[in-house]
Amino acid sequence: MISSTSFVTKWYITLFANTVPYQTQLRLWDVFLLEGRDALVIAAVAILWVLKDHISAPQANFETILSLLSSTFVFEDENALFKWMDRLLTDGKLREEMDSWRAEWARLVAEGKSGKALL
User: Fold this and answer.
1) Which of 38, 45, 68, 96 has its CB surrounded by the most CB atoms within 10 Å?
2) Mean pLDDT (the chain, rounded)
3) What's the confidence (pLDDT) of residue 33?
4) Buried b (16+ CB within 10 A) or exposed e, 18-48
5) Which residues form the Rab-GAP TBC domain (predicted)?
6) Which domains does the chain have, with CATH numbers?
7) CA atoms of 92 and 105, how far apart (whole Å)
8) Which parts of 1-91 fold into alpha helices (H)?
9) Counts for the chain of helices (H) and strands (E), in that order
10) What is the reported pTM?
């Protein structure tokens, strides 16, 4: 099993630099500045969703999955990505859920139980 910290931390710390093409990165930054941190989570989910068949393939191993997740990703249709992100970011119920998940994580961290949480 590959921990999300193995690849998502780099995505978030660099705001997707060297993860997506520069033009896509600029558009992601625009959405991030307008919508906040939820935009970064949704962009990460989009990348994982597109790669899900490769990640979950029976022949996939730790090295190939991590290499795939560490390489530059080019979306087939960048405009479709941003339309999808817009649809999710305007979904009030989803945003509330994301806030509740963040609050739950903060509680686990405060209680010292974050290391035992399954993400």
Assistant:
1) 38
2) 91
3) 97
4) ebbeeebbebbeebbeebeebbbbbbbebbe
5) 1-36
6) 4-91 (1.10.472.80)
7) 20
8) 8-13, 22-35, 38-55, 62-70, 78-89
9) 6, 0
10) 0.84
